């Protein structure tokens, strides 16, 4: 650990007082060498660095409590503390990545255990709909209550979800547990991303995100193997695939919470935070924090998004499908709520979620649209990919998991390179014009190589290309939207990006599940030999049953053809959607990151 600390410490430096001042003083228009004068930042303000009577620097005035706490924290902690915080965040990502990898391996078999393999994408689709709705409330909590408290709340949700999945006695309880798990882990990762943004310079942020995401390189190999071991345990051994992490995760998360709280208390003692009595009565405090949290706006958005998204996940189970009354009502009411949310934020909200000038910024729009397009395209085909590899390419669950996690391996390594280039050049937009064509090419090649009898090496090649393109998307989207806003709106901007991305992913999973249900059983019925038709329902609903038939037998060949038939439709939809990424990329401005100072204190 000590050598790691020594290496990590050289990455972090304390910005001097002069540099801190540069983040607070508008220098007007500047003329870069050989270029046109840069436009003045419309959101910049002129003021002297605030200090208290003892000379201790204070957070910038006008910030909400959670943001002010974050600035006071970076003004207080040392290089060693910052290093330890990043190491703790690395281990958090390691635990999350490991658990996600195990889940991806065993989830088809858990669904098959309840004889719901064809619906194995349903828990993820429902969870994504609910998770998308929780990002904005979490952002408001981060800004008004604090980063540490919000992180602790998300930790509790994730732990509860793992306990429910480990102890479930039916598919419905399993789905409910997965919703809590996704809410918690998604919210936890979001809080960690906000803390990372609080603790880094803009030009180094890509490298910091690469560091916290690097555990996926390890878990991509280990996760499927461990998941396979849980599956191989006698009886219901898969339950330990969730129960184990219900113990490990909180033990990993709590040190970060206590570190952040300790540093905030330290900041108060050192004078970097001024807590004066508000003079408000209890009811006045309730009204004040209700306005600060924008409780009405948060409720309208959360209810609207859940009501609007859920019908797309549950319509197939309604008595009359899309014609069912409550399905139509949920869509109409949900859309109306979202429409009213926009009106509320524009005209009535005392503390808007995001400054209206940022909502209309072309970089913010471009980054959000790119994320939604990428997630929608990817999840149109990815969920059934590991099952496809096991059935069509005759791989074991471990081998299929390795291929499915090539993205984690390649992107984990490539993000360091991408982050280093961005830190050196302070530019990022140009990378999209290489990443988008490569990604579209890879998905197009997967359409051709989906057939039975093709070498699995072609699938590996396509996954490498997809990982290269996808890693660029992930970094550029985050940098673009953070570069377009100030520190007060970090949490809101990241929440907006996560919302649209999660909606895109949920829509992709919904499309994937719907297309699968309307294509795979039709193709299976067409290709299955008469001798196997009596087992049609078992074959359709269970991956275990599908892989039970020996390779080369008529029944196995029929199942492989049915998979290829369904995958053709899924991949074609995903590839067509990805073309929309080109106009999204054109919207993003080519921002010079080194000229956008945003945070101060001891940062990376």
Question: What keywords describe this structure?
Answer:
604 residues; mainly alpha; Growth Hormone, Chain: A; two-stranded antiparallel ribbon; globular; disordered N terminus
Summed up:
This protein is mostly helical.
Description:
Belongs to the major facilitator superfamily. This is Major facilitator superfamily domain general substrate transporter. It is found in: Membrane. The protein is an all-alpha fold and 604 residues long. The chain has two domains: 450 residues, MFS general substrate transporter like domains (Growth Hormone, Chain: A), CATH 1.20.1250.20; 57 residues. It is 72% helix and 1% strand. The protein is built from 25 helices and two strands. Strands 1-2 form a two-stranded antiparallel sheet. Helix 19 runs antiparallel to helix 20. The longest helix is centred in the C-terminal third of the chain and has 38 residues. The protein is globular. The N terminus is likely disordered.
* Main sheet strand line-up: 1-2
Domain count, please report it: 2
Tally of helical segments: 25
Amount of beta strand: under 5%
Count of β-strands: 2
Distance N terminus to C terminus?
Answer: 20 Å
| Major sheet description | 2 strands, antiparallel
> CATH-wise, what's the superfamily of the largest domain?
MFS general substrate transporter like domains
**Principal-axes shape call:** globular
Radius of gyration: 25 Å
In helices, the fraction of residues equals over 70%
Mind telling me the CATH class of the largest domain? Mainly Alpha
Instruction: Give me the secondary-structure category.
Output: mainly alpha
Order of helices and strands: HEHHHHHHHHHHHHHHHHHHHHHHHHE
CATH-scheme architecture of the largest domain:
Up-down Bundle
Per CATH, what is the topology of the largest domain? Growth Hormone, Chain: A
On the 0 to 100 scale, the average pLDDT is: 81
The parts where pLDDT drops under 50 for at least 5 residues are 1-48
Family: Belongs to the major facilitator superfamily.
Biased composition (Polar residues): 22-32
Keywords: Ion transport, Iron, Iron transport, Membrane, Transmembrane, Transmembrane helix, Transport
Subcellular location: Membrane
